């Protein structure tokens, strides 16, 4: 788990979850899956995005990505959303690359209902 947020939700309302994260690897050519999940690392997957750390950038290059999902609350109360990452292909060590000029951000906003 890289990031998490717990927010109050209302049954029947729809929310947008947006997670912006930058990834880096110790080798070029790796790919990473960015996921938004419910509740915990092993929770239901709401959305996934594959990010390629290409050879053109080389090892250590930061590759940014934003994953978005919608969630309709089934009950009123607090709900936790988490951002996770897993190396999909390659041999390098994948790391989230937060910095003062590019923080990792996990947002939840009300959409409708």
Present the secondary structure layout.
Layout: E1 3-9, E2 14-25, E3 31-38, E4 45-52, E5 63-72, E6 77-89, E7 94-96, E8 105-112
Antiparallel strand pairs: 1-6, 2-5, 2-7, 2-8, 3-4, 3-6
Describe this structure in words.
With about 110 residues, the protein is mostly beta strands. The chain has a single domain, classed as Jelly Rolls. It has strands at about 5-10, 15-25, 30-40, 45-50, 65-70, 75-90, 95, 105-110. A four-stranded antiparallel β-sheet has the order 1-6-3-4, with no helix packed on it. Strands 2, 5, 7 and 8 form a four-stranded antiparallel β-sheet that branches. It starts with a strand and ends with a strand. The mean pLDDT is about 85.
The proportion of residues in beta strands is: over 45%
Number of structural domains:
1
How far apart lie the N and C ends? 30 Å
Instruction: Kindly name the structural category.
Output: mainly beta
Q: Determine the number of helices (DSSP H or I, runs of at least 4 residues).
A: 0
CATH topology: Jelly Rolls
Q: What integer value in Å does the Rg equal? A: 15 Å
Low-confidence stretches: none
| Biggest sheet statistics | 4 strands, antiparallel
Amount of helix: under 10%
Can you write the helix and strand succession as a string?
A: EEEEEEEE
CATH class: Mainly Beta
Spatial ordering of strands, largest sheet: 1-6-3-4
Q: What's the pLDDT, averaged over the residues?
A: 87
Spatial shape: elongated
- Give the tally of β-strands: 8
CATH architecture: Sandwich
């Amino acid at each position: 788990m890289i990031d998490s947020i717990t927010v109050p939700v209302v049954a029947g309302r729809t929310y947008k979850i947006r997670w912006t994260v930058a990834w880096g690897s110790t080798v070029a050519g790796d790919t990473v899956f960015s996921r938004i999940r419910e509740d915990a690392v092993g929770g239901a997957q709401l959305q996934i995005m594959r990010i390629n750390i290409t050879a053109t950038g080389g090892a250590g290059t930061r590759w940014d990505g934003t994953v978005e999902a919608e969630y309709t609350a089934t009950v009123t109360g607090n709900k936790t959303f988490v951002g996770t990452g897993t190396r999909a292909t390659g041999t390098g060590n994948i790391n989230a690359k937060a910095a003062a000029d590019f923080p990792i951000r996990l947002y939840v906003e009300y959409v409708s209902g």
